[in-house]
Structure formats: C-alpha cells, structure tokens
Amino acid sequence: MIKKFIRKILGVKNSAESGKANPKPSVLTAKEHGINPKLVSANAIRVTQTLQENGFKAFIVGGAVRDLLTGVKPKDFDIATNATPEQVKRLFRRAFIIGRRFQIVHVMFGQDLLEVTTFRGPSNDAAPKDEHGRVLRDNTFGEQHEDAARRDFTINAMYYDPASQTVFDYHGGIKDIRKKTLRIIGVPEARYREDPVRMLRVVRFAAKLQFEIDAATRAPIAVMAPLINNVPAARVFDEMLKLLTSGHAMACLQQLRKEGLHHGLMPLLDVVMEQPLGEKFVTLSLANTDERVQQGKPVSPSFLFASLLWHQVLEKWDAYKAAGEFPIPALHLAADDVLNAQTDALAIQRKIGADMRDIWAMQPRFEKRVGKTPHKMLEHQRLRAGYDFLLLRCASGEIDAEIGEWWTGFINGDAEQREKLINTKPKASGAPAAKKRKPRRRAPNKAKAEE
Ligand code: ATP
Ligand code: MG
C-alpha cells in the first residue's frame, strides 16, 4: 500500500505500462483468487508435480490460468518451468521436443497433450529482426518474471501452482480480469512491431471474453494493421483458425472490422466481409461453427474455409459456365482460382485445400437424383461434410430446401425408402442454382486464351 503510494507520488509507471520485467509478483492464495481446483486437469497436476519433485519450478500458465480465474474449464493446459527442454523430456515417457524458433516439449498422456515451455529470457535487442522490426528468432531462456514480461496481455501472464494453490501475478492481470479489460504488457507499438499477430490476438480475446480493449492497447492498431502482411502466411493461418474456431467467430469478425483490421489484411477476410451475396451463407456457417464449438463438438477447418470461400467459387463457376465451359470442369477451374489466390496469402495447407475441393465438387452431384448416382454418393468418404454443406446452401436460400430434405431422407432411409425416393420425381425447383443450365457447345479453353 505504502509502496503504491510512493510510486504514485513519484509518478512511477507500473510494469505493464513500462514494459519492464517486474521481479515481484502479487501472490494470491486460494481464498483470494477463488480458483476451483476441480477445473484443473489431472495431467497438468501430474506434470507440475513431477517437475517440482525433481527440483524444478513448474506452473500452469497463460490462457488456462485466465480461464480458471473466470470460472471457465480450460480447453488446454500450458506449463511453464525453469527446466530446459532436455531436462523436461527426460522426466516423461512420452515427451517430444518440437519447434525450431523456440523449443518446447509436448508431453502426452493418451490423447491429452500438454505443452511445456521453459521460461523465456528478456527480449534481446540484438535479436534478428526483419526490416519492419518483427523479431525473427529470440531463443534465450530466463527467469519467471522475465517470462511474464514477454507474454502478450496482463491476463495471460499469470502462473498457478496447483500444489500450493497459489497464483503469481506479475502485471496486474487479476485486476484486469475483474475490470474485464484487455491490456497489452509493455509499450503497445513496440509489442505489435515485434509481433504483429498480437493485433489479431487482441481481437480474438476481446470478442471471446467480452472484455473492453484498454485505450492505449487499442490506439495503435488502426495504423499498424498493415504490418500483418509481413508475417509468414502459415502463422496468420494458425491465428485465423484459432479466431474462427474460438466459439465466437462472428463476434471476432465484427471486432476485426471495428478495429479496421480486416481491410486488405488478407484476401479471405475481404471476401468474407464484403460479399453481399454470401453474407447470409457465411453468417449461417459461422453461427453453426460457434454452436458446435460451444457444445464441445469438433469443427473441421476444411469445412469452415470451404464455406467461407463458397460464394467466391460460385461467382467464378458461373463465369466459367457463361464462357461455355461444362459445369463440372468449370467448378474445378473456379476451385483452382480460389484456392491458388488464398494459398499464397493464407497458406491453406495442401490437405485442407484438397478436402475443400472435395466438398465443393460434391455439390453438383447432389443434384443428380436418378439412377445409381445417389447410391454412389453414399460411399463417398466425405459424404457427411458434403451433405452438411448442402444443408447450409439450402438454409441460406441459395438452393431449394427440397434438395436437402430429399438427401436427409435418402441418407437416413432403408433400401426400400431409398428406392422410393429415387423413383419420386423431385418437385420442380424455382431456386436459381437448381435450374439446369444448358451449356453452350464447349469453346475449348476460351477463357484461358483470353487471359
Ligand atoms: P486460448 O485459450 O485461446 O488457447 P491462450 O492464452 O492459451 O488462449 P495460446 O495461443 O494458447 O493462447 O498461447 C498461450 C500463452 O502464450 C498465452 O496465454 C500468452 O501468455 C503466450 N503467447 C501466445 N502467443 C503470444 C504472442 N504472440 N506474444 C506473446 N505471448 C504470447
Ligand atoms: Mg492455449
């Protein structure tokens, strides 16, 4: 209290504002922080206990502590320790050192994966950076308080020791949790310059936790947003995937727009947020994803990205058909165009790209409801994803709801019901995409020749 008073008189900034490592944390007892020990994973306790029994410091850290403090069951647990990766690896049967930029250890118990990270040292001025100031490599180990100063937000820089049930708070995280404030540690401009991905993280956490962004944390984002373009596409993809599968994807995208982060940030977001035709489709798809995440169901990145980009595919598909291409090859050409454009900017992995193409390519096949085709579809490896996608198209009004209902009956029906459905003439459809378009005679590679 007295210290606080003296600091106030001297105008000393707190460590979150100054960005200096604060060696003295606030220490909170179980009664003060109120964490429910039942929400702590048994495997996380196993890891911290093993490390501590071997003479090391070990804590649950980051998002898990933040979630525990808000009474939410964390989806994963990260551990921070002063043991080196080699020392950690030796203590566990299934432990793997991964990462080149900064080595961490994956400790596995069955399907459960825990990430164990050695405390990181102070950011080194001599660390290699790109021409915009983004830190490329910085691998020094350090003390716990230095590790805390390198984390992104005050609420993500707390450490919980399950053995003593104590929380160590270096940057006023508890206070910010109670005030529902998202505050970056250190000087915001400098922290965004070191790692522009932190701007996307601000948005994700604000939307997910429904926290206010502190004014100083928010102010530089609009100006610094273009720095995201210098970040390797694979990292942006990872962060975008976290954002879209956070259970609050819609809120995140709205927040991105509010912060001016969507514009030119990456083609995907421009497409998603500025296509009037696809808006309903994308809204439905994200609402669907949010619901699945909130129910603890898995979401597939390929389904998610296939739906985000569907209206771009539709537009190009129509253009190829109008240029005289047959529908199926036209769809593949459209898929090529869309995937190529996105792969450069967002590094959609090859496997995800292939799955997206599968989902798209199934769509016209759902419209053939005669002969053997529907039976063949039942054997398709990705039938479920393709069918869910079809239902989204129906729900958004792109195609007649009757097609979706027909397929629901066909997939769930027995042999007799299926035969009956095949023999029922589908009702005439008024929806535009369900209309049979007669292709003009194929003008070979006309579109290509004009390029
Ligand atoms: P979630 O619950 O969404 O996983 P999280 O806080 O655990 O949230 P992660 O991406 O798993 O987020 O990161 C774990 C921790 O690592 C963070 O809480 C933060 O302390 C630190 N961290 C992650 N990314 C950065 C970054 N770009 N800059 C600084 N610290 C980071
Ligand atoms: Mg996490």
TrEMBL record:
Q: Which family does it belong to?
A: Belongs to the tRNA nucleotidyltransferase/poly(A) polymerase family.
Q: Name one GO biological process term.
A: mRNA processing
Q: Which Pfam family, just one, is annotated for this protein?
A: PolyA_pol_RNAbd
Instruction: Please name the source species.
Output: Undibacterium jejuense
Question: Is Plastid among this UniProt entry's keywords?
Answer: no
The tRNA nucleotidyltransferase/poly(A) polymerase RNA and SrmB- binding domain covers 211-270
List the Gene3D superfamilies: Beta Polymerase, domain 2, cca-adding enzyme, domain 2
Under InterPro entries, the record lists:
NT_sf, PolA_pol_head_dom, PolA_pol_I, PolyA_pol_arg_C_dom, PolyA_RNA-bd, tRNA_ntf/polyA_polymerase_I
Name of protein = Poly(A) polymerase I
